[in-house]
Amino acid sequence: MALDGLRGVAALAVLVLHIPTLAGLVPHGYLAVDLFYIMSGFVVAHAYEARLKDGWPAGSFLRARIVRLWPLYLLGTAIGAGVLAGAVDDAVGFAALGLLLAAAMLMIPTPLDAESQVFVLNPPAWSLFFEMVANIIYAVVARNLGTRTLKLVVACGAAAVLIAFLLAEKGSVGQHGHSLPGGLARIAFGFPLGLLLHRIWAGGRLAIRWPAALIVAAFIAVVAAPDLGRWNGVLDAAIVLGVLPFIAAAAVTARLSPGLEKAAAFAAAMSYPLYILHGPILRAFETWMAPTPLAYGLGGTASLVAAFVAARWFDRPARALLGRLMQQRRPAPLTA
Known about the structure:
By secondary structure, this protein is an all-alpha fold. Helix content is 73%, strand content 0%.
């Protein structure tokens, strides 16, 4: 599915955005998160909605999501904690780091002030937090979530995105203490839209037929759109509400050759490791070598290598281990 390949391209756009020497190539690269949210809603519905409607417990669904997301998230958090530990030189600092690490392990946002990242140890995790919030709500309401209600939720989310982006004069909101409500608005639109997109696709009512190259080119054009300063909020809202849904829908229906299918599967496997690991890795090189083009180049390269290694040799075994541990902790069933 072209959606898989597009996910890899979106993760790469976020990496480029966070490399200062390259960030000008993708002024709107942060909108990849909104595409991720749409994709997440679609993929979750595809994998789990029928089971949830058939009575699969919400707790089992949430365990499955934790097993899927936590290992790489914790790896990135551990890297971030190691980097910050090198700058701590007293007991108070280590105690504060311990508290940050404990909160991070439970995915609890800890904005130290209005301007600070809500996940200091692993900054990109802010979007993961909102995704888990959406997953929890979805697990509870999925059985009774009709299509008409879902359309209303999407409409309310769209209004929230428009208000948040116009107030902030940009779409890059949610990652700092002061912009947390903006992050909630982004997930409130993207995730349910992905759920709705899946229902339309499953019902055979999705007729968009774009070639894969056009889909990727359209996304690149979106993130490479010029910086409009105070008008970025208007542009970003137009992109998120009017362009990304069509890109995502086209990626769902696009047909790929066997070779492109393999490339898309590889890009999909790399996407989450790259997204969740690149932040602390870039910070590590910036800290060890000072913020220079060489440091960022090495950090970006290391991020790609780490994503490949993690996807190939870490993620699957770690998920299997976490799954066994969580299964063992479940209470034994009562017997007559």
